[in-house]
Amino acid sequence: MATVEDTSFKRDMLKTVPSLRAFAVSLCGHQDLADDLVQDTIMKAWAKQDSFAAGTNIKAWLFTILRNEFYSQMRKSGREIQDSDNVFTERLSTHPAQYGAMDLRDFREALNKLPSDQREAIILVGASGFSYEEAAEICHCAIGTIKSRIARARGKLQELLDITGETEFGPDANSASVVSRAFVSRPG
């Protein structure tokens, strides 16, 4: 019979699955491998739940397990499948029809060109919502190192995406006028 602690642990752990999956995809680059990595992480966490200190940050604990599992698998495999021309990625993904799909694809490509330590840091802080301190703990490095990695990653992303100012975010003038007319003419 499950105890209250087991139920609480399970609930808190399952809440982090979407974030774990996003982080796993960013690490390994393939959705199917990311799903396997998240499953391995959940299984290890469940088996080792007695080592989790209740009241601490379960999300950081799970991200650390996932990260360690990823690097363990990388060491075991001895090599990584290179997909520099996106042949495998293009077969696995379908481009969404909604607005911004091209920008998202460009961003993904730029993100994948970052060194793994910079990509990991910017995803932990920028996309997953961890503080610099939590990200440093997950990556087993100093806070200054995380800040440096993020600064370098942001600079490199701006360079790769050819971003020179805030006006380059969002829809272009033509798209904005079409979208605004559609919302104005729609009965409310």
Structural notes for this entry:
- With 188 residues, the protein is an all-alpha fold.
- It has two domains: 77 residues, RNA polymerase sigma factor, region 2, helix turn helix motif (Rna Polymerase Sigma Factor, Chain: A); 66 residues, Orthogonal Bundle (Arc Repressor Mutant, subunit A), CATH 1.10.10.10.
- Helix 2 packs across helix 3, helix 2 packs parallel to helix 4 and helix 8 packs across helix 9.
- It is globular, with a radius of gyration of 20 Å.
- The chain starts with a helix and ends with a helix.
Tally of discrete structural domains: 2
Distance between the termini: 52 Å
Cα-atom Rg, whole angstroms?
20 Å
The fold-level CATH name of the largest domain is Rna Polymerase Sigma Factor, Chain: A
Provide the low-confidence segments as ranges: 176-188
Helix content: over 70%
Order of helices and strands: HHHHHHHHHH
What's the CATH class of the largest domain, please? Mainly Alpha
Class by alpha and beta content: mainly alpha
**CATH architectural grouping of the largest domain:** Orthogonal Bundle
Inertia-based shape: globular
Report on the biggest sheet: none
Record the SSE blueprint:
Blueprint: H1 4-15, H2 17-28, H3 31-47, H4 58-77, H5 87-92, H6 101-113, H7 116-127, H8 132-139, H9 143-161, H10 173-185
Helix pairs in contact: 2-3, 2-4, 3-4, 4-8, 6-9, 7-9, 8-9
Outline of this structure?
Residues 17-79 form the RNA polymerase sigma-70 region domain. The protein has helices at residues 4-15, 17-28, 31-47, 58-77, 87-92, 101-113, 116-127, 132-139, 143-161, 173-185. The chain is 70% helix and 0% strand.
